[in-house]
């Protein structure tokens, strides 16, 4: 494995940010110290993730592109929750709700310490008690590992000195035809998911877990993403988001299991996704309009797709959902893998 470290630029406050790059003959990945953010992921000379050319560009309204997200990925209703009989108030940065850990001091805004061990880059940081309203001093690590021949493994570790809640993910936006290709509607997608969590106003779950059968959400057999998006105006769930921005309940229950296969129609690049998580948020960049991406790319709606492996949105308000409570001094662990290869037809 080859490894390089270089300056990626400076933030508005003058902080220098380094970019760490690992590669083998098949795959190359670059990760910024700012936000433990995947900026480039090149497979067979095709860069399949969106991003920006400088560290400073990531400080704008960039849709969380490539960032490590937390303390709570996705939404918490009304920016409040109760834990052990105590109420906590979080920022409301998504209408009436809290999104992706808050607007200012979440895990995607940290400058991470980085240590290289073999074919793994270990990014670490801390989040103090009360940051963005969350309880507990949190120690957090995310490990990026290149596995032969062409797999990226992402492992998350965390501990807290108080009971808290935690839900983390990577928020890379993919286009397997190349990050600047312009559309993912002809990508094919398979999901190991027979159910979704029904969304209500603000994309907050109603608490119902509903079957995907006979709906646009049925990806249990591979189909084009556009085959679902064509129902955006006529399907009430799709209309809420202007496309796909929904949590799928994964059927795989043990280990780091295969849960999704995404294939680019032009390159025939296949990305298999494996995870230990119970859900995946599929997001088709429904409201994206970012004109200043890397290589002067204008990222628009439906030009990219996210597969955000995580626990369910707003789980703290739904006892029937898998728990997101991290008990004091326990160790949180989660793993997701992205395996790249040529599709076999």
Helix/strand structural class: mainly beta
Through-space gap between termini: 30 Å
Q: What is the overall shape? A: globular
**Biggest sheet, open or closed, and with what strands and sense?**
9 strands, antiparallel
Count of DSSP-assigned helices: 2
Helix content: under 10%
Count of DSSP strands: 29
- Numbering strands along the chain, what is their spatial order in the largest sheet? 11-12-13-14-29-23-22-17-20
Strand percent estimate:
35-45%
- Quaternary structure of the protein: single chain
Radius of gyration: 19 Å
As residue ranges, the low-confidence spans are: none
SSE arrangement:
Blueprint: E1 2-10, E2 16-23, E3 27-32, E4 37-43, E5 46-47, E6 68-69, E7 75-76, E8 80-83, E9 86-89, E10 98-99, E11 113-117, E12 120-127, E13 138-147, E14 151-160, E15 164-165, E16 169-170, E17 188-191, E18 195-199, E19 205-211, E20 223-224, H1 225-229, H2 236-241, E21 245-249, E22 257-263, E23 269-275, E24 279-283, E25 289-290, E26 299-300, E27 306-310, E28 325-326, E29 331-342
Antiparallel strand pairs: 1-2, 2-3, 3-4, 4-5, 6-16, 7-10, 8-9, 11-12, 12-13, 13-14, 14-29, 15-28, 17-20, 17-22, 18-19, 18-21, 21-24, 22-23, 23-29, 24-27, 25-26
Write a compact overview of the structure shown.
The protein has helices spanning 225-229, 236-241; strands spanning 2-10, 16-23, 27-32, 37-43, 46-47, 68-69, 75-76, 80-83, 86-89, 98-99, 113-117, 120-127, 138-147, 151-160, 164-165, 169-170, 188-191, 195-199, 205-211, 223-224, 245-249, 257-263, 269-275, 279-283, 289-290, 299-300, 306-310, 325-326, 331-342.
């Amino acid at each position: 494995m080859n490894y390089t470290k270089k300056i990626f630029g400076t933030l508005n406050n003058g902080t220098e940010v380094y970019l760490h790059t690992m590669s083998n003959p098949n795959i190359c990945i670059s990760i910024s110290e700012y936000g433990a953010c995947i900026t480039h992921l090149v497979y067979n000379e095709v860069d399949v993730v969106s991003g920006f050319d400088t560290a400073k560009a990531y400080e704008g309204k960039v849709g969380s592109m490539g960032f490590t997200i937390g303390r709570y990925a996705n939404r918490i209703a009304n920016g409040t929750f109760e834990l052990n009989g105590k109420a906590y108030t979080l920022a409301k940065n998504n209408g009436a709700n809290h999104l992706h850990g808050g607007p200012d001091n979440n895990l995607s805004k940290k400058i991470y310490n980085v240590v290289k061990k073999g074919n793994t880059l270990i990014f670490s940081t801390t989040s103090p008690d009360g940051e963005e309203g969350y309880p507990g001093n949190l120690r957090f690590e995310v490990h990026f590992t290149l596995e032969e021949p062409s797999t990226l493994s992402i492992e998350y570790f965390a501990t807290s000195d108080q009971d808290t809640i935690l839900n983390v993910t990577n928020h890379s936006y993919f286009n397997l035809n190349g990050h600047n290709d312009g559309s993912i509607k002809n990508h094919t997608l398979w999901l190991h998911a027979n159910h979704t969590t029904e969304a209500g106003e603000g994309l907050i779950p109603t608490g119902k877990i509903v079957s995907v059968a006979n709906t646009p959400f049925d990806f249990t057999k591979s189909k084009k993403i556009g085959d679902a998006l064509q129902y955006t105006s006529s399907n009430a769930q799709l209309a809420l988001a202007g496309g796909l921005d929904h949590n799928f309940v994964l059927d795989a229950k043990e280990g780091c299991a295969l849960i999704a296969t995404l294939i680019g129609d032009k390159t025939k690049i296949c990305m298999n996704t494996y995870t230990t998580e119970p859900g995946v948020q599929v997001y088709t960049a429904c409201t994206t309009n970012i004109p200043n991406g890397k290589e002067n790319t204008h990222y628009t709606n439906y030009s990219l797709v996210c597969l955000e492996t995580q626990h369910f949105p707003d789980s703290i308000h739904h006892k029937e959902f898998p728990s997101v409570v991290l008990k004091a001094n326990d160790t949180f662990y989660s793993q997701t893998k992205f395996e790249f290869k040529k599709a076999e037809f």
